[in-house]
Amino acid sequence: MTALDTPAPRLDPATAVAVETVEVAKEPAPKEVGNRLGRWLLYAALSLITLAFVYPFVWLLSASFKPRGEVFDNRLIPKTFTLDNYVSVWQEAPMAAWLFNTVLVTLLATAAVTVSSAMVAWGFSYFRFRGRNLLFGVVLATMMLPGAVTMIPTYLIWDALGQVGTLTPLWAGNLFGSAFYIFLLRQFFLGLPRDVFEAARIDGANNWQIFTRVAMPLTKPALIVTALFEFQAAWTDLMRPLIYLRDSEDFTVPRGLKSLVDQFGFGGQWHWEIIVTASVITTVPMIVLFFLGQRHFVQGIATTGSKG
Asked: Which range marks the domain in which residue 28 is found?
C-alpha cells in the first residue's frame, strides 16, 4: 500500500468542532460589517462638514491672487495668478500699524484676562468663606447680562477717564476677569487634589506661593484654553474699536477692514481684491495659532472637571 492509498486520519469530535469554529471566524460577522459601514459613513459625514468649513477660506485665499475682474468668478484655481494685491494692500492702507495695534491689544487683553480670571477662580476654589457659593452665583449671573446693557455706562466711564480715542478701553477691562473664564478655571482648580496644596503649606509656602508655584503650573492646559479663547475674541473684536477709536492710525485690523469695505467695497471704487487680500492677512495668524496650540486646546477641554 502506497502513501497515496493511506486514508486520512479521522479527527475526534472536539477537534472537528474547533476546526469548523476557526473557519467560521474567518468570515466577517454581520455586526463587524455593520460597524465598518458605520465608520465609513461617519468619515464621509465628517469630510463633508470639514469641506463646508474649509471652502470659504480656500475661496478667499484663491480670490486674493486674482485681478480685480476675476475676484467673483468662483474658480478655486485662479485663471490669472497675480501677487499685486499683496503689494497694493500695504500701499492703500496702513496695514502695518493696524497689525501692530491688533497684536498689542490682543496680547494685553489675553494676559490680563487669563491672570485675573485665574486669581478669582483660585479664590473661589481654594478658600472656604461664608457666602462663597452665593457670590460665585452672582459672578455667573453677569454672563446673562447682554453687552448692549452695559455699553453706554462703560463708555461714560472711559470718557470720564479721558481714554476714548486710545487703545486702553480695548483691553483694560480684562483686568477684572471674565465670568466664563472664572467658571472654566474654577472647575479645573476643583479637580486638583487638595493634599498637594496642604503639603506645600506644610513646607512653608504662603497663599501666593501656592497659587503661583503649585496651582498655576498644574492648570497649564486650562490656562492655554483661556488664552486661546481670549486671543481669538480680541483679535476679531470689531464693536469696541468702532466705539472708542477715532484716528485711522489707531485702528485694529477688524476696524481697518471695516474702513476698507466702506472705501473699496461700497464706496464706489469696487476694489474687492484689496478687501479679500486684507482678510487673508488677518485670518492666517489665527489659523497658525490654533494649529500650534491644538494639542493643549484639546487637552484643556478634555481635562476640565465638572465639580461644584
From this structure: 13-63
* Structure confidence by residue, pLDDT tens digits, 265-302: 665 667 788 888 888 988 888 888 877 777 766 665 55
d(CA 15, CA 10): 10
Q: Which residues contact 189 (CB under 8 A, 6 or more apart)?
A: 121, 122, 125, 126, 215, 219
Contacts of 260 (CB under 8 A, 6+ apart): 92, 93, 274, 275, 278
Report the distance separating Cα 266 and Cα 262, nearest Å.
5
Report yes or no on 56 lying in a domain: yes
Among 63, 78, 98, residue at a domain's last position: 63
- Does 73 reside within a domain? no
Binned at pLDDT 50, 70 and 90, residue 31 comes out as low
Task: State how many domains the chain has.
Answer: 2
CATH label of the domain that carries residue 222:
1.10.3720.10
User: Do 52 and 92 fall into the same domain?
Assistant: no
Identify whether 75 is part of a domain: no
- What lies within 8 Å, CB to CB, of 180 at 6+ separation is 143
Residue 200 buriedness (CB in 10 A; 0-12 / 13-18 / 19+)? middle
| CB environment 24-57: b (16+ within 10 A), e (fewer) | eeeeeeeeeeeeeeeeeeeeeeeeeeeeeeeeee
What is the torsion angle, in degrees rounded to the nearest 10, for the CA atoms of residue 76, residue 82, residue 86 and residue 87? -170
Quote the pTM value.
Answer: 0.77
Please, are residues 124 and 136 in contact by the beta-carbon 8 Å criterion?
A: yes
169 with 247, same domain: the answer is yes
Please write the tens of the pLDDT for every residue from 239-271.
Answer: 999 999 988 889 999 998 888 888 776 656 677
